[in-house]
Amino acid sequence: MAFIRRAILKLILLCFVLSVLLVLALRWVNPSISAFILSAPGTYAQHKPVWSDWEQVSAWLPIAIIAAEDQKFPFHWGFDRTAIQQAIVERLEGSRMRGASTITQQLAKNLFLWPGRSWLRKGIEAYFTLLLEALLSKQRILELYINLVEFGPFVFSAESASQRYFAKSSKQITLQEACMLAAVLPNPRHSNLHQPSKTLRHRADHIKQQVNALGGVTYLNHL
Predict the structure, then answer these.
(1) Closest CA to 210 of 86, 58, 97, 60
(2) Nearest Cα to 186, choosing from 198, 213, 204, 159?
(3) I need a surface site. Which of 92, 164, 182, 215 has the fewest CB within 10 A?
(4) What count of Cα atoms within 13 Å lies in the side-chain half-sphere of residue 106?
């Protein structure tokens, strides 16, 4: 039994060290793959994201994403306690449980985890969320997110989406276009920016209002 306990402890320690080194490497390494990209049907070559450094992306996009997905992003440690509490209350009241994931949680899920829902998956997601927050800057977390998240059916990265939907680089997208991209994030595989629905346009307009309420791109100075 003692041998088994030591072996388990060594395995846990090894997993911890490897996960820390993996996340730490993201300070310098621009990943071109994620767990969600690998889980997409078809080949990797069909879905390979096009990387853009922070300076190569229009400032309207990160602020639109923050306005749409996680307005407290500059100030929390990966978890929005208020949003989580509200989601739990709504669930207890019988309402449809809304998402309470922060940008960092979504990045952890997209990078390292498999699609689906389970307590094991949520636990691993929380662990990687804490690692990302501890080892990377807020700007780097958002840069990784922008370059790996899905902006349409199997369209990964802002640059890929901008080229496909607007026929220009992500550096050139306008506030309205950034809000349209941010509007698809809750359900990218059922959104079509070539023919945006009324609901999608309404969401984009709401995001634009939130961007203005936050003070526009100057809000990024908090990162």
Answers:
(1) 60
(2) 204
(3) 92
(4) 24
Rounded to whole angstroms, the Cα distance separating 19 from 21 reads 5
What class does CATH assign to 53-222? mainly alpha
Non-local CB neighbours of 39 within 8 Å, separated by 6+ positions: 114, 115
Q: pLDDT tens-digit profile of 57-109?
A: 999 999 999 999 999 999 999 988 776 666 565 555 555 544 568 999 999 99
- What digits encode the pLDDT tens for the residues 138-161? 999 999 999 999 999 999 999 999
pTM of the model: 0.92
| Alpha-carbon span 9 to 130, nearest angstrom | 21
8 A C-beta contact, residue 52 and residue 173: no
Sign of CA dihedral 177, 180, 185, 188: negative
Q: Give Dmax (Cα) for the chain.
A: 63
- Running DSSP on this structure, what letter comes out for residue 95? P
